[in-house]
## 1
Amino acid sequence: MPEKNQVERAVLAALERDAAINLHRHPVRVEYDHARRALILEGEVEDIVAKKRAYEHASRIDGVQGVMDRLRVVPSEPRGDGAVRVSVAAALLQEPALLNHALRAHNKGLVESLRAPPAADGVIEIAVQDGVVTLTGRVGSLSHRRLIGVLAWWAPGRRDVIVEIEVAPPEADNDGEIADALRLVLEKDPLVHADQIGVRVRDRAVTLAGVVATAEEKKMAELDAWYLLGVSQVINRIEVRG
């Protein structure tokens, strides 16, 4: 199968050239299904940056019409599924923008109601398996959907976040929506001074600019941008002046 081997080699070569992806430390399995023109990425990566960039590289390879992303992020603080579920639920329960949303958690085949407002604006359901957080339900805006995803990514121990939440009524997505959602996320991140960071989005590519005191804050702002659904690239031009 020359085409299969050619596509797989092209993907691995693209990943190898990216400094954000360390294939020697975290090997990635690449499998191409010629009949479906689909590619599978599987393995562990260092962070959300490596995960998202690997997906974008694979999507741009000739002959690939779809990518199944099974990459998992190595957690800085390993935790069991129960602890991850509790952390995600706590973050969603405490978020003011979600106070009028019903919240349910799936645990060992049972569904536990964590909050049930009498006239809920939406519903969010949480399930965690092998560190992978899956979020389902319905919310009223893309901003809510994006915020929920980021809050789940912030939970210690999560290895991936899958957001399958419906937006009803449907909203058209655009660069302005992504920029507004990112500004909201930066404002909510206690590790970031949002007023010192500028955000610009063009064709789903985010550019960050400004001045912060530490390299850690610069990195956190970039991670927040990558956590956001719909972002294809992050250009971090934030300066560190400690």
## 2
Amino acid sequence: EVHPDVWLPNQSAYTDEFVRDKKTVRLSKNSYEGNQGYCVAQWFAKKMNITAIEDLGRPEVVKEMDSDGNGKGEFWIGADGWASANVNQVKLREYKLYDAGIEPIRAAEAVKNTRVLDSIKKKEGYAFYCYKPHAIWSMADVVMLEEPKFDASKYKMIQPKEDPDWYNKSYVATKDALKNIQIAWAVSLESKSPAIVGFFEKFQLTADDVSLMAYEISVEKKEPADVARAWMEANKSTVDGWLGL
């Protein structure tokens, strides 16, 4: 009955349906900032003088990113089912990276994380969709590349849920706007557990908080409950405020 990590406007097709139209889901008013882009390892950026997304289309860079010898440079765009992966698929087309020899890869995020670390160890070029908050910023020394500044007139994304011909009808040639990340809950929860809903309405974290927690859980293998307790202990006055104490 609760989704703790709704990225908007990425998932607006769903919030439009369930929050705005059907009114069966609510969103928290508080949010924290999400920043999406494309990353490479710092060593690779320095070696190949990569600072912006268009640099990935240079022939010598594509060659360094071709780990399987098929002549294509691998670029992870997200996992199957991700709305953001669809956006990335369109973006790379508009950035002319497919024409330059870049191959978009869809795979589970755990596969991507392993590949990033492996590519750094083997000194192989690799590019991937990245965002904050995320554990990757504590896992590896990576850098987010420059993109054209967000321009709403160049951001016309249609998701598969809206139109089967979404890929051909979409046009995205600009960086994503910064995102709002919020909690969503079923309206039915408000009558069943009003105290929990009241807590959600006051709940507020930062992107850095979430990135560190993600690292402690996914990399250091700490129990989520232990990570949460440690954060609450270190931020007792904040938590007391959420609880009205």
## 3
Amino acid sequence: MITNHSTAEYENTILGVLPPMLLSDYLYNNMLLKKSYDKNEIIHIEGEECTQIEIIMHGEIVIERIGISGDLMTVNHFGKSDIIGANLIFSSTDRYPMTITAKKHTEVITVQKDVLFELCNSYPTFLMQFIKIISDLSVLIGTKMKNRISRTIRQSIITYLSKQSMLQNSYNIKLTMSKKSLAEMFGVSRTSLSRELQKMSGEGLINFDAKSIQILNKDILE
């Protein structure tokens, strides 16, 4: 069926590589659905199954997680033409690892998994663009991890020590969990945590043993 749905607004998104008449038909038949979210509205919660992708038409979406101090931390921002769920939709672990929220009033186009598969299978140009988006996202995540992991581990340690120092009213912190559990809470390996503790000890910031961490330089506390 050929319809008169305007497709001009989709030109700068992945949908822009599709033939205009086909795109118009998909919109007319509700195979591509428009949806809007209010400011601060939760779009997906951690652990929810990813059954669709969302293409942002207007607005801003953020990925958030609860930090070790209990505060809500923003991990990443997505804006116009970006896609939410592209790296999860066909994954064997297809659940959102963090909460996704609309930072401001946001409009998206949702594409269900079966429709996305049909588009990838039938239109090589669309498939190549989708693969490029996933690849670019993987490179971006890898680069961020490479550039920030050392700082992130140290900042996580300092945040934990600051909170525990206040709770225990002491600069000699008794660990409330094993180093393995502490590493899991920080989202790093135990080896990486131990390496960073050794660096901080070598810099004269802390002393530590299996059950405690002594803060030597109080200026590091938040």
